[in-house]
Amino acid sequence: MASQLPPFKHFNVTFPQEYVAHVETNRADKMNSFFEAMWVELRTIIDTLSRLPTVRAIVFSGAGDRAFTTGLDVKAASQGILGPSSTTDAARAASQMRRVIADFQDCVSSLERCEKPVIVVMHGYSFGLAIDLSTAADIRVCARDTKFSVKEVDIGIAADVGTLSRLPKVVGNYGWVKEVCLTARVFGAEEALRVGFVNSVLDTKKQAVDKAIELASLIASKSPVAVQGTKELLDFSRDHPVQDGLRYTGVWNGAATQTKDVTSAILSGLEKRAPTFEKL
């Protein structure tokens, strides 16, 4: 499977189980902080894995013991996207920044639009961009030492690449969301679990990664037609009225239920054996 991928500079991509890809941010010496080339490369990786028939679920984590990511590399950004504009005209400067933000948003959104479920593993410092990335994913697990913060107000901006749009839908507690976004206060793993931000808390980073791979392997054992359809329909229904979700589900399954996977799943259950499904 690795032979089907080009080399990547800022991320490690491995395949710990059949049909499972593990993407790891590889910048531990800088607390896995991101600069522009990194989020562009991450989009390339996720888009590639989304189309790869040998991948059915993705785990995303950060290298090292200190941080999943501390967010934007502010020093690099001050020399790039947050630095002086190439124009003194305010409208043109704003137009340039809107394009940058839209591209950054699209890179983060690659996790959400990925056809395959994405499980994020957080540990240590998980600030700013960590929340953007994790809310764009499908499942979140973390280590007990994780420290979270929606950090953007501390650097003078409103979070602009996903957190403010997605976190309220993930957690469902608007007052809590406003509190952590307006104060940038640090909160821990147990609070994240209590409000529903993370699915589970493990004692160590290794245990959290192992848990994510276990979940990904379980997902990968299911029909890829059913799994991809379920992710698509859940995400659509989250953002649309119930009747629209029901109508879209009917149209989607009108085609998807014609798959041979339905017969394979039913027969394997009756025969008490593990089903096998063709690549998609």
Automatic annotation (TrEMBL):
Principal cellular location given in the protein's record: other
Pfam families, A to Z: ECH_1
GO process annotations (BP): fatty acid beta-oxidation
Transmembrane residue ranges: none
SUPFAM superfamilies to which the protein is assigned, alphabetical: ClpP/crotonase
CDD domains for this protein: crotonase-like
This protein's pathway: Lipid metabolism; fatty acid beta-oxidation
Highest taxon listed in the record's lineage: Eukaryota
Location within or outside the cell: Peroxisome
Record-level Gene Ontology MF annotations: delta(3,5)-delta(2,4)-dienoyl-CoA isomerase activity
A GO cellular-component term linked to this record: peroxisome
Gene3D superfamilies: 2-enoyl-CoA Hydratase, Chain A, domain 1, Lyase 2-enoyl-coa Hydratase, Chain A, domain 2
Entry keywords, A to Z: Acetylation, Fatty acid metabolism, Isomerase, Lipid metabolism, Peroxisome
This protein's record includes keyword Cell cycle: no
InterPro entries associated with the record: ClpP/crotonase-like_dom_sf, Ech1-like, Enoyl-CoA_hydra/iso, Enoyl-CoA_hydra_C
Family affiliation: Belongs to the enoyl-CoA hydratase/isomerase family.
Entry protein name: Enoyl-CoA hydratase
Organism: Talaromyces rugulosus
Upper lineage: Eukaryota, Fungi, Dikarya, Ascomycota, Pezizomycotina
